[in-house]
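LOG
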Amino acid sequence: MILGLWAAAMLWVVPHCYFFGYHPVENPEQLKTIIGIPDWVFWGVFVPWLACCLFLPVFSFWLIQDDDPRPSEELGELIPFEVLAIILKRRQSGSWGRPKSSGSEA
């Protein structure tokens, strides 16, 4: 959803600013302004920015669902630090990833 909003804003901002912002103005009196900024900046940058700033808090606070904070059943009740401690203990003992020897090595 966030990437879609970003893509939609980009697809509006880049072409709008390209087509409306890069034309020479001989007389500064010809430049149209809205609240003191050029109209192409207002519609091409300010309005999409404002729309994103208004939409993202609504999306973040009311539309995103919380994830279940409980550990998955596959890991049992272990927390990540306990899993890491088990892995480090096996690596230090040298038994990590090596098959156990049967006693007869030739």
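LOG (cont.) second protein
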Amino acid sequence: MVRSGQGPSGVRKPLAVTAGVWRLDARARRRAVFFIVAAYPMIEKTINLRGLKCPLPALRTRKALKAVAAGDVIVVECTDPLAAIDIPNLLRQTGDALESSASADGVLTFRIRKA
């Protein structure tokens, strides 16, 4: 008996053809995802925006977000108290995710994941 994804000899095929579209079987999909993740690790970039006043922290954050790939993380450190309002509003506009925000010793730290 031949099941889908197996040849006549019972050996699993890495690719199956369905309606003219090449699709990976479940095992090959897992391997492909593993190799893609291993080959392209997520990047975490830290930006020091201490001493800059409004609106520069938000503008520099927007510029940094344009320069990174989806899934990468940017850690923004700034001292401007208005950045606590500006950066979350910026992220609502761009659709990126604010993973965490913290304030310690007058330094606001935002951890942002690019969508």
